[in-house]
Amino acid sequence: MPAAAPFNPFAPFLEAFNQSIGRFIYRPVTDWEHFFSPQVVFNYNPQDMPVESQVLARVGSYGSQLSKIIAVIEAMLANLPADYTAEQRKAVDAFHKLGEEAQAAVDSYRERTGPAALIAAARSLDATPAEKAALLRQLTAILAPDA
User: What is the per-residue pLDDT for 5?
Assistant: First the structure.
C-alpha cells in the first residue's frame, strides 16, 4: 500500500495554477528591431508585436496615446448634460480619478527628473572647486543651445 501524500495546504491553488498556465503564453518575446532599446513583451498575442512596434514608433508611447484619449473624453464630458444615473456618475468619477492619477504620476516623474531636481542636486553637491568647474563645463556643453 503506497504511503499517503503529505498534506499540502496550497494544493487547490497549485491545481488551479497548473490548469490555467497552459492558456497563458509565458515565454517572453524580445523585439530586437530597435537594438539599443529592445522591447520584451509578455502577453496573449505575441503575433501582434510587429504591429505594436510600428504604432509605438509612428504614433507614440501608450502613455502619450492615453493622454490624448483622456483629453478628448474630458472635453466631451464637459459639454454633456450632467444628469447621470448613479451608475454613470460612478463611472465618470472613476474616469476623472484615472486622469488625475495619470497626471500625478507624470508630475511626480518630472519633479524627480526635471530641472528642479538637477538644481537641488547641484546645491547639495560635495565637490572641490576644480570638480565643480569641470562639472559646469560638462553641463554647459550639454545644455548649450545648438549653434
Answer: 66
How far does Cα 51 stand from its chain's mean position?
19
Confidence of residue 105 (pLDDT cuts 50, 70, 90): very high
Indicate whether 110 belongs to any domain.
no
Count up the domains in the chain and report the number: 1
29, β-bridge pairs: 41
Is the pTM of the predicted complex or chain greater than 0.70? no
First-to-final CA distance of the chain: 87
- Whether residue 72 lies inside any domain: the answer is no
Which residues are bridge partners to 41 per DSSP?
A: 29
C-alpha cell at 42: 509578455
Using CA atoms, how far apart are residues 104 and 102, in angstroms rounded to an integer? 5
Domain that holds residue 33: 23-59
Indicate the angle between helix axes 86-113 and 115-123, nearest 10 degrees: 40
Amino acid at 85: T
